[in-house]
């Protein structure tokens, strides 16, 4: 293994001009550098480590120093992917085929949903989703079929003994896996942990205000993408309590300090991170057995009307038809990179999202609370049969172009 203090040459099969998904608009040098660090670490034997929680194959990705820098979720190791290393979902699929998956979601698109949620977050300026993009990575710690590992070993053995023959191989190593790569956030804990603490501990006024604002951004994200998997264990909170710099060493020191010297230097702060967005962007609202509610709807914060700050941030965007047009186009550019992309199914997904945006716009104008928002009748915006082209003509929105449909079917078990 090369010394960790040096930067070794990267094998040929690692080289890609664009390590991020080619259909995403814009070049992100910081994210590209993050992927480069991950590739160099893997080349030096610092391999991604499988996360044993959850129902899919996901991995902590590290840099050359062994520090976790991201979470990678391969497409083929998703809950119902063909190479998912977790046996629970395999048993579910085998023993309960009638209850297989979530009927409102496109199967095996979790990695696109993760990246799509990050895209929506960036476009709306919410800043609650750690940056997530679709990338390709290869590591021996990923779950590969035995035949693929055997073939790779044979090719490498031949190449070592007969380099002239080996140079004709298309690939010596394992095939790179496509999946979502999310930046790792440090210092965060499950929301459930902090919500229990906040039930008994009073937050400073400034922190409570920011927490409410961050919470509202989480609500807006989840509502627009219609997240079907938002429990209190898959959104995170980082809370930095106040720290007093001029803390007296003794009672005598305390008496000598003037009142203005008791300044809080380490100001309290709080931040929310919305992770695990792989079960969003449904092509219809839940209408089977489960309603997939938003668990944050039971918190006290959900009973407070949206703040003016949130309205000023979101309303100008979602009321701009050009913005919605561009958002849908960007999502299309992302989703069409998948080999199984279905244009008709994508239109249905966007129909649900567009309906959610219209409901959200009304809720913000009517000064509703988050819990009132999720109780609104779900609608779907459908294009008329005469529609031609892509979303480039969305800015020509008229009542003759789109139709608004109320989804009458509802899940058997539903809280809202």
TrEMBL record:
Entry GO MF terms: 1-phosphatidylinositol 4-kinase activity; ATP binding
Gene3D superfamilies reported in the protein's UniProt record: 1.10.1070.20
InterPro entries (alphabetical): Lsb6/PI4K2, PI3/4_kinase_cat_dom
Keyword Cell membrane attached: yes
Domain PI3K/PI4K catalytic: 45-383
Mode of membrane association: Peripheral membrane protein
One GO term describing the cellular component: trans-Golgi network
Localization per Swiss-Prot or TrEMBL: Cell membrane; Membrane
Annotated catalysed reactions: a 1,2-diacyl-sn-glycero-3-phospho-(1D-myo-inositol) + ATP = a 1,2-diacyl-sn-glycero-3-phospho-(1D-myo-inositol 4-phosphate) + ADP + H(+)
PANTHER family: PHOSPHATIDYLINOSITOL 4-KINASE TYPE 2, PHOSPHATIDYLINOSITOL 4-KINASE TYPE-II
Designated name of the protein: Phosphatidylinositol 4-kinase type 2
Organism: Nesidiocoris tenuis
